[in-house]
Automatic annotation (TrEMBL):
InterPro entries: Asparaginase_II (IPR010349). It comes from Saccharothrix australiensis. This is Asparaginase.
Amino acid sequence: MAHELVAEVWRGEFLESVHHGSVVALDPTGRAELLVGQPEQVAYPRSSNKPVQALAMLRHGLPLDGELLALACASHSGEDFHVDGVLRILDGAGLPESALRCTPDLPIGEDARTAHLAAGRGPAPRYMNCSGKHAAMLATCVVNGWPTDTYLDPAHPLQRAVRDTLEELAGEPVGAEGVDGCGAPLFGISLVGLARAFARIATAEDGPERRVARAMSEHPEWVGGTGRDVTRLMRALPGAVAKDGAEGVYAIGLPTGEAVACKIADGSGRARALVLVAALRRLGVEGPEDLATVPVLGHGRPVGAIRPSSALTG
């Protein structure tokens, strides 16, 4: 994949390192206002695909809305309210925590992880950042009478529904298949297709797409967590649907129709938010200023910054 330079790491006046990647920014008509790198090539959306997975579940009867639907779209920090929400989804479906097939893990939120370890607790499926999605997948299986013990099988009716929904919203066929970090099937599409999917969800006026958009934009702390950039981004842009993903993926759709998707080639998460904000600015959308750069620290204080490259700033 031919990525381009998208971010520069400056320590004082010295260019210390760089990040390459691919970016697409779509205007409200779906036209590409910005193309950097190779956003037409297939990439794994990773957790940025969760809003589409949740949409597939809603279309098949998932009885969630509000904060719990936002949690189904989340890579949550593992704060107490997130974990309690996961158990509420399972309880509503009449299932025990042992039904979860996601990987046992610790909370990914720094404060939540510190408190968790201080309390002497170890890894468990409920703390895994994808547990909200997994609980919702199980609840969807219960509604439809589908097997719950094999819900991660790519041939399971649930996962076939997810694939079909992704292809519909992206406007292209799945180009790669794999296994995500949480154990769920992973379907690859282009960044252009991912941006289209987010635009479709964010602009919906009714139906299950609108339910996903409303849940995420109205409950952003359930999608990420305290201090997380995805939460701050949606708070700053009312009605926006944004989702971060592993290996440097990020996507956002706006209710006015603009959409951005990006991937950092080296998989680092530190540049993805600033790259996303820079691409939004090319669309005339002012994202939160505190996400436009990332400080580079020396002895605990800012001595430089990570900034978007000229390919994004024009």
